[in-house]
Structure formats: structure tokens, C-alpha cells
Amino acid sequence: MRLLRWICLSLALLAAIPAAAVQPDEVLADPALEARAREISKGLRCLVCRNESIDESNADLARDLRLLVRERLVAGDSDAEVVAFVTDRYGEYVLLRPLATGANWVLWAAGPLMFLLAAGTALAFLRGRARAETTAEAGLSPDEQARLKAILESDEAQGR
Questions:
Q1: Residue 95 pLDDT > 90
Q2: Mean pLDDT within 12-17
């Protein structure tokens, strides 16, 4: 029973690790600003960890970005201005959900277009196979029939 308690406690502590990414000294005194900072941080990618938001990451660069976001909010920037500032500084890669504008439309549309192309090709192939004429196998010629008959008779004669 004690072992089960230790396992449950260990799992609970491991589950809490991502929540500890934001350090107490980073937290803003104003709860509204802190909530805005957390929401913005959830949409920004950690440039070290990749595919992890700066809100979840323990990397030093993620901490610097969290502090930068809070600094801009305290300076009076709106959420959009903060995201624009970080994007201008680090590029669009810093966004966990890139914008669907400009050249990104090609990337957003490529997946569905390739699926439609593959489905169309498969459909055309299957329809072509269904329409293809099946060639009936030709029977044995009279010479082949006579030869087969002779072989079978010789096998019967030998007792096979």
C-alpha cells in the first residue's frame, strides 16, 4: 500500500513540472496583466525546445521571452502589439500557430490539395482498372489437345 502511495505521489509531482516553468519572480503583481501575459506566452514557441510554448518551457531563452512579454505589457502595449513586437524581433517561427497569410497560404493549402490530388489519382486508376477489357483465355488448339490426350493415355498405361 505504501508503494502505491509513493507511485501516486511521484506521478503527481511529475505532472506538475510543466506548470513550474514560470518562476515566482516573473509573475506580475496585477492579476489581469499576468493573465494576459500567460495567454500570450501560450501562443509563442520556445526557440530552444521547439513545439513547446514559452509558458511551458524551462529554457533560459523562454524565460527571457516571458520577461519581454511582461515588460511590453507593463509598458502599455496591447496583446497584438506584444505579439507583433516579438514576431518582428524573432520572425514568424516564434508563433506556435503561424498566420495564414501571404506565402503561408501555400503551406496551409498544400496538405488538403495533395490529398485531393492523391484521391483523384487513385479514383482514376481504379476506374481505369474496372473499364479495362479482360482477355478471355484461349482454349487449347487441336494439336495441343491431341498431345495432352496422348500424355494422359501414356500415364494411364504406365499406371501412374
A1: no
A2: 58
